[in-house]
Amino acid sequence: MARNNGERDMPIATDGRTADRPVGMPVGEILSRIRFENRWTLAEVSRRTGVSISSLSKIENNQSTPAYSVLVRLAEGLGIDFADLIGGSTQKFASAARVITRAGEGTTYVNRMGAYEALASGLAAKSMQPMVIDIPRRAGGQKTVRSAHKAEEFVYVLSGEVIFFMEPYAPIVLRTGDSVYFDSASEHGFSSNSELPARILSVCLERPGTTIRSSEDIS
């Protein structure tokens, strides 16, 4: 299957997830459906979310894969849950709510940052977003994809080693069992420190008003 330019350098997860085999409906199709149901123009969605009209058009036409930071901004501006944009969410968090995610059964999504598996994606309106992410090695002089979104984030290295980049600090290697808790509003990124993908657990606690742009905005 031929890939367009936006998919050319997509990472492949250690369990076989790729951009060619997403779980659920593509983000562009979901975004288009939401616009149609609400009779919103691209300009109106751009006004609500802070994502440019050209970027929204590329997303809807599956010419680019939005970064996590963009998904968060879209969800916030459209008044939906992050997981709704990647095909999850069936019930809202409430008293005595519980959702179990069996191994390998999270909702998957791939962009240039890595191959994501959103956990507890069947539960909307939760305060935290847990994800398992397979981080590829950045070849040669390839620039590490950076992200910035208004959140507190906790990352735990499940396997392999990752190089953690965060402004204004020097890059640091995190090994299996290491963890970091940081302010995601600072530009940050990860790269595997070996030829194989590394795997991390990321838990984000998003803050209101996520309007930060970064180099990860359109991957």
Commentary on this structure:
With 219 residues, the chain is of the alpha+beta class. The chain is built from four helices and eleven strands. The strands form three sheets. It has a six-stranded antiparallel sheet with strand order 2-3-5-11-6-9, with no helix packed on it. The protein has a three-stranded antiparallel sheet with strand order 8-7-10, with no helix packed on it. It has a single domain (5-206), classed as Jelly Rolls, CATH 2.60.120. The protein has helices spanning 27-38, 42-49, 53-60, 68-78; strands at residues 91-92, 107-111, 114-118, 123-124, 128-135, 151-159, 161-166, 172-175, 179-183, 188-192, 198-206. A hairpin with a 2-residue loop joins strand 2 (107-111) and strand 3 (114-118).
Task: List the SSEs and their pairings.
Elements: H1 27-38, H2 42-49, H3 53-60, H4 68-78, E1 91-92, E2 107-111, E3 114-118, E4 123-124, E5 128-135, E6 151-159, E7 161-166, E8 172-175, E9 179-183, E10 188-192, E11 198-206
Helix pairs in contact: 1-3
